[in-house]
Amino acid sequence: MGFELGPVAAAAGYQLLAFEKAGSTNAEALNRARLGIEGPLWITAREQSAGRGRRGRTWETPTGNLAASLLLTLNATRPQAATLGFVAGLALNEAVSAVAPGIAVRVGVDGLDEPRTRLTLKWPNDVLADGAKLAGILLEVEPSGDRLAVVIGLGVNVAAAPAGLPYPATALNELGSFVTAEGLFTALTDAWVRFHLIWDGGRGLAEIRRLWLAQAAGLGAPVAVRIGDSVLRGKFETLDEEGRLIVLTDDGERRAVTAGEVHFGAAASLAS
């Protein structure tokens, strides 16, 4: 089975370029933006050898995992474009729930306990399953004439999670759902269209924010945010209208965080 767009994405005019191997799907997308290709264009690779994560980290994509990037050219500001990470997180959660409904919720023994959501969204751009990292999202933006070329890269642990990371990670197959990267991608392309229409050039950010907060990891919990050489501690209170993390500190001050390394719960007390 090859990578294919979903019927909604195909009807909406999205295009697809699929590689067997690529260094980085984000790099492939940016190269095409520099050649004047505007998108919307999805780029996938069965194997990615030089994937990029946030904050300059590498992202491993062995065969069986999903590496996909979406190229868009928008009339938007950089802050508006950055909020597409929330759109991507919502779309990815919906796609995983569609192809692997058995892992979307967990119930207790004999189903007697209340079901709870296993999939959550971690600010700014991670998807977690049972608190472990399942997927990461990387946005890269460049000027393109008087508009912006925006690339949204998504890496999902489908077949296996990388070992030796400083945080817990998991994969769909490890959670007992034997879906394929190709099947997840098709569902993702259709889910993206739905949430991108809600976003509506940034005009629908309030609704995207509401939907994202309903699936947020660590909301109301202790949080520690490493910003450069300092650590901000407090409680994850909400997101503001621009998608910034709002931390309520112990002295009652509300601090808006644009970027940083976030730790929740018990990990927040250990972060230094």
Number of separate structural domains: 2
Class by SSE composition: alpha+beta
What is the H-and-E element order? HEHEEEHHHEEEEEEHHEEEEEH
For this structure, what is the CATH homologous superfamily of the largest domain? Bira Bifunctional Protein, Domain 2
CATH classification, class level of the largest domain = Alpha Beta
**CATH level-two architecture of the largest domain:** 2-Layer Sandwich
Proportion of residues in extended strands: 35-45%
Distance between the termini: 46 Å
Oligomer: single chain
| Overall 3D form | globular
Spans of at least 5 consecutive residues with low confidence: 106-115
Q: How many strands appear in the DSSP assignment?
A: 15
Number of helices: 8
As for the CATH topology of the largest domain, it is: BirA Bifunctional Protein, domain 2
Give the averaged pLDDT, no decimals.
Answer: 89
Approximate helicity band: 25-40%
List keywords for this structure.
alpha+beta, BirA Bifunctional Protein, domain 2, SH3 type barrels, 2 domains, 8-stranded mixed sheet, 5-stranded antiparallel sheet
List the helices and strands and how they pair.
Blueprint lengths: L6 H5 L3 E8 L2 H10 L6 E12 L5 E4 L4 E9 L3 H5 L1 H16 L1 H4 E2 L9 E2 L1 E4 L3 E4 L2 E13 L2 E10 L24 H19 L5 H9 L8 E6 L2 E10 L5 E4 L5 E4 L3 E4 H6 L2
Parallel strand pairs: 1-2
Antiparallel strand pairs: 2-3, 2-4, 4-10, 5-6, 7-8, 8-9, 9-10, 11-12, 11-15, 12-13, 13-14
Helix pairs in contact: 4-6, 4-7
